[in-house]
Amino acid sequence: MIEARQLTKRYGEKTAVDGLDFVVKPGTVTGFLGPNGAGKSTTMRMVVGLDTPTGGSVTVNGRHYAQHRAPLQEVGALLEAKSIHPGRSAYNHLRALAMTHGIPRRRVDEVIELAGLGSVAKKRAGAFSLGMGQRLGIAAALLGDPQTVMLDEPVNGLDPEGVLWIRNLLTSLAEEGRTVFVSSHLMSEVALVADHLIVVGRGRLLADTTVRDLVREAGGDTVQVATQDPARLRDVLAGPGVDVTGRIGSEELRVTGLTAREIGLKAAEHGIALFELSTRQVSLEEAFMDLTRDAVEYHGSAPGTETVESLGRPA
Description:
The protein is α/β, with parallel strands linked by helices. It has 12 helices and 13 strands. It has helices at 40-47, 71-74, 90-100, 105-114, 130-142, 160-175, 187-193, 211-220, 230-237, 260-269, 284-292, 308-311; strands spanning 2-11, 14-24, 28-33, 55-60, 75-78, 148-152, 179-183, 196-201, 204-210, 223-227, 243-245, 252-256, 274-279. The strands form 3 sheets. The protein has a 6-stranded mixed sheet with strand order 5-6-7-3-8-9, with helices on both faces. The chain has a 4-stranded antiparallel sheet with strand order 11-12-10-13, with helices on one face.
């Protein structure tokens, strides 16, 4: 379990992480989301003691990272896949890590096979592609068979087979009861593997929720209905947890708290004809963009829309 309490990090006048409170629980995949510059990497670095908090604290399984007697066996982290000596082979890199942490040699062979590195294990890591570097970084993170796994953008550079491998790996680690904390900009992948989400923007916590709830709050469970008798349908659908909205004089209603099937059955029960019955589909990406709209630090613009402010004053 990873627990942050009022976690704060400042660099001079810049506050990168601002009073974060969250818990990453075992047995689930927790996605760590936020725009560029939101403080995700800084937060992850503080988890493993690479950066010292300005205020607050963060612990892994009840202790600060440095207090663990065998930290590599407590938490495995991938923060920078290419942070290895380029002249060292993949096998020797993992073997050196194992020797300095009291990990048996057979575990090196196990993670090489797990990460699909068998054919390149004796090759220099400096010649690896980005994808192979990612696999080696993940193999190193798993070397100590840790209960907590923390990966920063693990699918960077991976081909479709590698992405599927990561997806299955994260799910299986969580099913084994491990704590899995993953940052990514690929919302489609997060939606497929994460159960829980921690979303930050400008260093602050924006959401601590589930994928389902975040999408629902963005209108993902909204059903649009059109009928000649909206007032009567509203009365029929009324109930605990059901919200029905619509403009006065309009035949269209928006309903949350009921599925399209449930609405259709209720309408048929009371002989109310429906002209339209459709569920609004909202992706995790749309929900994320909606939530972080005011927390984006770096904005792009479409070609041809440059302004004096974006280009600087003309000479």
